[in-house]
């Protein structure tokens, strides 16, 4: 196990393109860190710099109080699991897992013990004499993990290891990875573009965009309290809804021609303290905090019409328009609303977010 420190890490390629800007983070011993973001955001480049496969242009990478910038990959005591498994097709599962220890000229009894232990941990014992071609995708991914854990490295690096699996298998492998981390207690750095993987696996998530870190926090922190508009839109399925809004001086939100009274709420106090009264902002709300019902006489919600109803099982998504802005709400599926049916909606004020129109940073008010 190991601690890590990223101190002002930058990566600039020879053509002048900068892929990572001032990456700073401390990783605790045994922590599961997930780097997440869209393609080209710098997450895989960061992982490759840790592995020693990419040179660090400036800054310091420290593992257990030792600067490792100039250490060769083989001297970093790091194991990496790739997206494409990278298994030897002519070798059995046993020999694929044993290969790195054989190269290190470890004692044969030690190699045998480590391979059997890893196979037991990963549920691969019945498959030790099979070749990769005779394994399922999930089994091959477990072999790749087994090849890494037999070495007992300080740090595991995992570069989108589940992206080649189908949706159902990805779900089961996420649980296996989480259980494996709990059992081993080893520091893990995991790269993915899938925010569901990030939310379900991570102790802390690092959200990146265009080479910059946007936010670092626990899954609950980044979901409930996104630092800016990008994080709010990127984290969450379906994504947050956004509207242009005006905050009046008497404590109302004017959005899409409707007025919502926020006097007495924490968010109003935050807006007042930050001097946003009388200004335009971007308002955001997650689908689960928009209340939607079939239109009923006497109900005081705002009117609209259901465009699409999507059944998800216990929940359903309702798609409708607010002043020509497409909106998604998540409701309990017990109430089926047909396309074209009139609805009423309103917002849970305690779960409304506000962002500055120019900086796109969140105007702070704590959400729980």
From TrEMBL:
<keyword id="KW-0067">ATP-binding</keyword>
<dbReference type="InterPro" id="IPR015855">
    <property type="entry name" value="ABC_transpr_MalK-like"/>
</dbReference>
<dbReference type="InterPro" id="IPR008995">
    <property type="entry name" value="Mo/tungstate-bd_C_term_dom"/>
</dbReference>
<dbReference type="InterPro" id="IPR017871">
    <property type="entry name" value="ABC_transporter-like_CS"/>
</dbReference>
<dbReference type="InterPro" id="IPR012340">
    <property type="entry name" value="NA-bd_OB-fold"/>
</dbReference>
<feature type="domain" description="ABC transporter">
    <location>
        <begin position="4"/>
        <end position="235"/>
    </location>
</feature>
<keyword id="KW-0547">Nucleotide-binding</keyword>
<dbReference type="InterPro" id="IPR027417">
    <property type="entry name" value="P-loop_NTPase"/>
</dbReference>
<dbReference type="GO" id="GO:0140359">
    <property type="term" value="F:ABC-type transporter activity"/>
</dbReference>
<dbReference type="InterPro" id="IPR003439">
    <property type="entry name" value="ABC_transporter-like_ATP-bd"/>
</dbReference>
<dbReference type="InterPro" id="IPR040582">
    <property type="entry name" value="OB_MalK-like"/>
</dbReference>
<dbReference type="GO" id="GO:0008643">
    <property type="term" value="P:carbohydrate transport"/>
</dbReference>
<keyword id="KW-0813">Transport</keyword>
<dbReference type="GO" id="GO:0005524">
    <property type="term" value="F:ATP binding"/>
</dbReference>
<dbReference type="InterPro" id="IPR003593">
    <property type="entry name" value="AAA+_ATPase"/>
</dbReference>
<dbReference type="GO" id="GO:0016887">
    <property type="term" value="F:ATP hydrolysis activity"/>
</dbReference>
<protein>
    <submittedName>
        <fullName>Sn-glycerol-3-phosphate ABC transporter ATP-binding protein UgpC</fullName>
    </submittedName>
</protein>
<dbReference type="Pfam" id="PF00005">
    <property type="entry name" value="ABC_tran"/>
</dbReference>
<dbReference type="GO" id="GO:0055052">
    <property type="term" value="C:ATP-binding cassette (ABC) transporter complex, substrate-binding subunit-containing"/>
</dbReference>
<dbReference type="Pfam" id="PF17912">
    <property type="entry name" value="OB_MalK"/>
</dbReference>
<dbReference type="InterPro" id="IPR047641">
    <property type="entry name" value="ABC_transpr_MalK/UgpC-like"/>
</dbReference>
């Amino acid at each position: 196990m190991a601690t890590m420190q990223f101190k002002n890490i930058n990566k600039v390629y020879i053509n002048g393109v900068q892929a990572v800007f001032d990456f700073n983070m401390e990783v605790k011993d045994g922590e599961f860190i997930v780097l997440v973001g869209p393609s080209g955001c710098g997450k895989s480049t960061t992982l490759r710099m840790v592995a020693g496969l990419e040179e660090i242009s400036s800054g310091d990478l420290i593992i257990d109080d030792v600067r490792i910038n100039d250490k060769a990959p083989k001297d970093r005591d790091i194991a990496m699991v790739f997206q494409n498994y990278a298994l030897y097709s002519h070798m059995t599962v046993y020999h694929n897992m044993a290969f790195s220890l054989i190269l290190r000229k470890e004692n044969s009894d030690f190699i045998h013990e480590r391979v059997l232990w890893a196979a037991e941990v990963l549920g691969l014992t019945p498959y030790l004499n099979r070749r990769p071609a005779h394994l399922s995708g999930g089994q091959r991914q477990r072999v790749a993990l087994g090849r890494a854990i037999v070495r007992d490295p300080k740090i595991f690096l995992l570069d989108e290891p589940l992206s080649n699996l189908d949706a159902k298998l990805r779900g089961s492998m996420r649980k296996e990875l989480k259980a494996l981390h709990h059992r081993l207690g080893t520091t893990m750095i995991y790269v993915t573009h899938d925010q569901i993987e990030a939310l379900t696996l991570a102790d802390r998530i690092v959200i990146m965009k265009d080479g910059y870190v946007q936010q670092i926090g626990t899954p609950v922190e980044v979901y409930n309290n996104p630092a800016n508009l990008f994080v709010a839109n990127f984290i969450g399925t379906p994504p947050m809804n956004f509207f242009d809004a005006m905050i009046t001086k008497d404590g109302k939100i004017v959005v899409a021609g409707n007025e919502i009274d926020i006097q007495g709420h924490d968010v109003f106090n935050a807006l007042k303290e930050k001097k946003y009264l009388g200004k335009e902002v971007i308002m955001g709300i997650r689908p689960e905090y928009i209340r939607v019902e079939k239109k009923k006489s006497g109900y005081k919600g705002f009117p609209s019409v259901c465009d699409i109803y999507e059944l998800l099982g216990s929940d359903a998504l309702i798609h409708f328009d607010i002043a020509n802005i497409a909106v998604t709400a998540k409701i309990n599926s017990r109430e089926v609303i047909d396309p074209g049916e009139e609805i009423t909606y309103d917002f849970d004020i305690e779960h409304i977010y506000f962002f500055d129109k120019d900086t796109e940073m969140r105007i702070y008010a704590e959400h729980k």
